[in-house]
C-alpha cells in the first residue's frame, strides 16, 4: 500500500506540470500551424509523439492511478481495454521516436532526398508507424484466442497482462519487433548523429557546408537527442531484464520490474513536451512575449488603480 501511494504521488506531482506544458504547446501549434506544420516537415513526427504521450497521460494513466489508489480494478470488463491501450500507446511513442531519429538524421545530412520524395520517405513511413501499433495489438490482445482457463486478475497491475504473453511465438515477436527493434534502431541512429556531430565539430573546418548544416540544425539535433535519451533510459532497463529472464534467470529483476519499470513509460511521456520545446523556438518566443505583455498589463492596471485611490 505504501509503495502504491508513493508511486501515485510521484506520478501526479510530475504529471500536472507536464500536462500544462502539453496544452501550451498544442495551443501554439494550432495558432502557428502554417509556420510549424505546413512549411516544416520535421515538426510532424514531434507533434505525433506529443499527441501519443498526451493520450497516455489523459486516457491511460487514469486507469493506473485508479489501480494504485484502490489496489484493484473496479471491473474485469475494463481489463481488456486497459491492456490494449497500455500496450499500444507506449509502443507507438517508441516507434515514433525511432522514426524521428531516422528522419532527423536524413534531414540533417541528406535533406534533398527527403524533400524531393516527401510522400515516399516522409508521409508513408510516418503513416505506417502511426498505424502499426494499433493494428498489431488489435490482433495480439483483442483477436488472439486465450485459453479457456485464462482469467484476468483484477488485483494485479494491468489485470495480470495479456494472454498472448503465454504463447512463445507471439511473445518473442512482441519483444523483438515491438520493443527491441525500435529501441536499438533509435540507439544506433542517435549514436551515429552524436558521432558525426563530434567529428565535424573537432575535425572539419567551419567553412565546410556540412558544419554549417549542423549549426543550422542545432536545435533540431538537441531536441532529438533529448527525447531519444529519455526514451532509451525508459526502455533499456526493461529490455535487459527481459533478456536475462529469457536466457538465464526467469526471476531476475522481478521486483524491480514490478515496482519501477512498469511505471517508467509515464516519465518519458512527462518529459517529452519539455524536450520538444528545445526545437520549437517559435512557441517559446510567443509564450514569453504573451507572458511579458500580460505582466506589463497587470502592473500598469495596478499602478493606475493606486493612482486613482
CATH-level-2 architecture: Up-down Bundle
Uncertain runs with pLDDT below 50, 5 residues or more?
293-306
What is the CATH C-level name? Mainly Alpha
Radius of gyration: 22 Å
Shape descriptor: globular
Count of beta strands: 0
Q: Termini separation (Å)?
A: 57 Å
Number of H/I helices: 11
CATH superfamily: Rhodopsin 7-helix transmembrane proteins
Secondary-structure element sequence?
Answer: HHHHHHHHHHH
Specify the helix fraction band: over 70%
Say what the CATH topology is. Answer: Rhopdopsin 7-helix transmembrane proteins
Overall pLDDT level? 85
Largest sheet: none
* Proportion of strand residues: under 5%
Account of the protein in words:
- The chain is mainly α.
- The protein has a single domain, classed as Rhopdopsin 7-helix transmembrane proteins.
- Helix 1 packs antiparallel against helix 3, helix 3 packs across helix 10 and helix 4 crosses helix 9.
- The longest helix has 35 residues.
- About 5% of the residues have low confidence.
- Its main location: membrane.
- Keywords: Membrane, Transmembrane, Transmembrane helix.
Give the secondary structure arrangement, pairings included.
Elements: H1 2-31, H2 33-38, H3 42-70, H4 79-109, H5 111-116, H6 118-143, H7 168-202, H8 209-216, H9 218-247, H10 254-276, H11 281-308
Helix pairs in contact: 1-3, 1-10, 3-4, 3-10, 4-6, 4-7, 4-9, 7-9, 9-10
Transmembrane segments: 6-29, 41-63, 83-102, 123-144, 180-199, 220-244, 256-280
GO molecular function: G protein-coupled receptor activity
Keywords: Membrane, Transmembrane, Transmembrane helix
Amino acid at each position: 500500500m505504501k509503495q502504491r501511494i508513493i508511486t501515485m504521488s510521484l506520478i501526479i506531482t510530475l504529471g500536472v506540470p507536464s500536462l500544462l506544458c502539453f496544452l501550451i504547446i498544442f495551443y501554439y501549434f494550432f495558432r502557428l500551424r502554417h509556420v510549424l506544420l505546413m512549411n516544416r516537415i520535421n515538426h510532424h513526427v514531434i507533434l505525433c509523439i506529443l499527441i501519443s504521450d498526451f493520450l497516455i497521460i489523459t486516457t491511460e494513466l487514469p486507469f493506473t492511478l485508479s489501480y494504485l489508489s484502490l489496489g484493484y480494478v473496479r471491473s474485469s470488463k475494463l481489463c481488456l481495454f486497459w491492456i490494449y491501450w497500455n500496450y499500444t500507446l507506449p509502443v507507438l511513442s517508441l516507434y515514433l521516436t525511432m522514426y524521428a531519429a531516422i528522419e532527423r538524421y536524413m534531414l540533417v545530412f541528406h535533406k534533398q532526398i527527403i524533400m524531393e520524395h516527401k510522400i515516399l520517405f516522409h508521409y508513408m513511413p510516418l503513416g505506417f508507424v502511426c498505424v502499426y501499433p494499433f493494428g498489431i495489438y488489435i490482433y495480439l490482445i483483442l483477436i488472439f484466442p486465450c485459453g479457456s482457463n485464462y482469467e484476468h486478475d483484477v488485483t494485479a497491475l494491468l489485470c495480470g497482462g495479456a494472454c498472448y504473453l503465454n504463447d512463445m511465438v507471439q511473445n518473442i515477436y512482441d519483444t523483438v519487433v515491438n520493443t527491441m527493434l525500435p529501441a536499438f534502431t533509435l540507439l544506433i541512429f542517435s549514436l551515429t548523429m552524436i558521432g558525426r556531430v563530434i567529428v565535424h565539430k573537432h575535425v572539419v573546418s567551419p567553412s565546410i557546408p556540412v558544419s554549417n548544416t549542423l549549426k543550422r540544425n542545432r536545435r533540431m539535433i538537441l531536441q532529438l537527442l533529448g527525447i531519444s535519451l529519455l526514451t532509451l533510459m525508459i526502455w533499456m532497463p526493461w529490455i535487459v531484464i527481459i533478456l536475462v529472464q529469457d536466457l538465464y534467470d526467469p526471476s531476475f529483476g522481478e521486483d524491480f520490474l514490478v515496482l519501477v519499470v512498469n511505471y517508467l513509460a509515464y516519465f518519458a511521456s512527462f518529459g517529452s513536451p519539455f524536450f520538444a520545446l528545445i526545437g520549437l523556438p517559435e512557441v517559446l518566443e510567443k509564450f514569453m512575449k504573451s507572458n511579458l505583455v500580460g505582466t506589463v498589463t497587470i502592473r500598469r492596471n495596478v499602478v493606475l488603480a493606486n493612482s486613482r485611490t
